[in-house]
């Protein structure tokens, strides 16, 4: 029996994982939220790992409020930087393999071709900066880890762009959506399958990987597809980012190159529209 600790139990990624665990009889999961294990508390993390033994730790805990992070910098840093550092130290001592979820926001978005793992990081907001600090702690402390950078995550669980669009589409006849930020929507259920493959195949190909669904889209494209698949008549107009100012800057281009993860983990990645169709069907 493979024992797995999952932090951030109330988030959409952990929720997708919970929905799949019944199909994996050889895996035993322990889902914990912040009330059960505060990853920002080093003493609590140390004590927890002394009392329990795990083969893997999947860190789904994160401070993801991109705009609020610009004013709540300390809170974002605690969860996204200190938390992973505490887990990395505890996992190293206990011999636990850490699977950590990171973000495309570690890049500045100034490239015009997909970002590779080796590309220079340069976050333009505190959320991305705090996540990068977490990555650096893990790579400095550990040898046996998987860091999965992903983008534009959504699912049938929690709060995300897909669910927000469906809600707003029922309330308004028309919406204006940014078209000059380019990336790839990623269904959390697909990302979870990758994490589970890492575990079930006992992969030893440690390191940083990029994972998103296939294809490229703007937020405008994403919204149009949501309404089309959902069968909603909401009109969508494209606008520039400058017409919708936010406290935190977003990368203008954050498409991720998935060649490394496809080769090393032998996975086939679905196109974002196909995954969106499956996610909407589950609502």
| H and E string | EHEHEHEHEEHEEEHEEHEHH
Shape: globular
Radius of gyration: 18 Å
- The residue ranges in which pLDDT falls below 50 over 5 or more consecutive positions are none
End-to-end distance, in Å? Answer: 32 Å
| Strand percentage | 15-25%
Order of neighbouring strands in the sheet with most strands: 2-1-3-4-5-10
Largest sheet: 6 strands, parallel
Secondary structure tally: strands: 12
Q: What structural class do helix, strand and pairing data support? A: alpha/beta
Mean pLDDT rating? 98
SS element count, helices: 9
Percent helix, as a range, is 25-40%
List keywords for this structure.
283 residues; alpha/beta; two-stranded parallel ribbon; 9 helices; globular
């Amino acid at each position: 029996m493979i024992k797995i600790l999952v932090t951030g139990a109330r988030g959409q990624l952990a929720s997708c994982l919970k929905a799949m665990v019944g199909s994996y009889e050889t895996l035993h999961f322990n889902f914990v939220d912040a009330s059960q294990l505060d990853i920002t508390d080093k003493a609590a993390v140390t004590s927890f790992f002394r009392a329990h033994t795990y083969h893997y730790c999947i860190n789904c805990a994160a401070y993801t409020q991109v705009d609020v992070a610009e004013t709540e910098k300390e809170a974002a840093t605690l969860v996204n930087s200190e938390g992973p550092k505490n887990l990395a130290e505890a996992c190293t001592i206990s011999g636990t393999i850490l699977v950590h979820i990171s973000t495309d926001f570690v890049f500045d978005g100034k490239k015009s071709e997909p970002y590779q793992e080796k590309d220079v990081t340069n976050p333009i907001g505190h959320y991305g900066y705090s996540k990068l600090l977490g990555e650096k702690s893990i790579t400095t402390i550990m040898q046996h880890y998987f860091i999965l950078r992903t983008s534009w995550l959504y699912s049938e669980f929690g709060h995300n762009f897909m669910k927000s669009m469906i809600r707003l589409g029922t309330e308004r006849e028309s919406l204006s959506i940014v078209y000059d930020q380019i990336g790839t929507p990623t269904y959390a259920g697909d990302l979870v399958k990758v994490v589970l493959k890492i575990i079930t195949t006992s992969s030893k190909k440690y390191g940083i990987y990029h994972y998103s669904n296939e294809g490229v889209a703007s937020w405008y494209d994403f919204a149009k597809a949501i309404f089309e698949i959902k069968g909603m008549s909401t009109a969508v107009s494209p606008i520039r980012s400058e017409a919708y100012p936010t406290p935190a800057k977003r990368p203008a281009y954050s498409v991720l190159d998935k060649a490394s993860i496809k080769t090393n983990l032998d996975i086939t990645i679905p196109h974002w529209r196909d995954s969106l169709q499956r996610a909407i069907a589950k609502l």
